């Protein structure tokens, strides 16, 4: 119900479409994530707007995301697969310019301070203004590089891919090496075989528009204590006062989180009027997990009344893993992939329509029964110590030979010299004593 083809598809075509869904909730973000991403492009990161992509600059953004979408495009001549790559980033312009000018953060000099005129100030310090008119930035300021040239590998029929589209909000002015084609508030530039850089200057500050309320608000949490059982609680809130929301909730849980379907509960927490709770859960698909083979698949279609709050909950048991199945940092816990909420739209034509929005919740952290991984280490250390002591004692008894001190042979040079002198003097005294005894006889 969540990932369904939308558009004019026949039933036979839908049966031949297969989808594989996966998630990596604990995948760390690194600059190396950009390397395989750029390899999918025809010119890699050498030309076109892809030349602006730098792993360090992208990771330094306030927020960034990467996506690779593969979809089928059909015409009269047939169908073909298309690959769509997208990168979104939220960049703090002032911070990015400061990082470009100096890698080490330095306080601004007094001549670069934008002071608030209505507040008191002293020499070298004042109350700063965050945004002022006249602020200018360019691609080279933000990314420390410009676009070197167009990607010549692009085929003529895809010539539109060599264009740069820039949306110009009110109060901004664009400066470019050559003129572009304006379409309402968007200017289109055709990339050529020389460098391209764009400068944007703020002429007049515009008030920030207020965001419209979201279609749905979702909170997902895990409850329970101990290492045996637990529960998942999901709360759906419809902020609209007049329209209801139809959505599909998808959970892909690992096999070691054993879900009990009979504990599934749907509760209406609040609403504008009386609501029949049996109408909230409209459809349910459940596929139980198989140990070490597949996870649990739970998919529910829900109806959220206007200004209503619905709670979905179920219980689970925690399985015991083999010691080889634990990650290196087992005491931290296991990351549970986010749930996927697909907001549907009312469609009276009978065709499969594109969903209004797709929302992902935050991931969860599951603590499983964890063995004492330090115990084998302690046993190895203790056993090795006992073996070393026993082996050392037995080895000394087998290879050592105990002799009187006067019969021991010296080993050092000084000891040998002293031994030779003492031996010579002993032999000399023995001869003198023998001669005296012969004279007496």
TrEMBL record:
Locate the transmembrane regions by residue number: 379-399
A Gene Ontology annotation in the biological process aspect, one of them, is: attachment of GPI anchor to protein
Supply one GO CC term from the record: GPI-anchor transamidase complex
Keywords, sorted A to Z: Membrane, Transmembrane, Transmembrane helix
- State the PANTHER family in the record: GPI TRANSAMIDASE COMPONENT PIG-T, GPI TRANSAMIDASE COMPONENT PIG-T-RELATED
* Protein name in the entry: GPI transamidase component GPI16
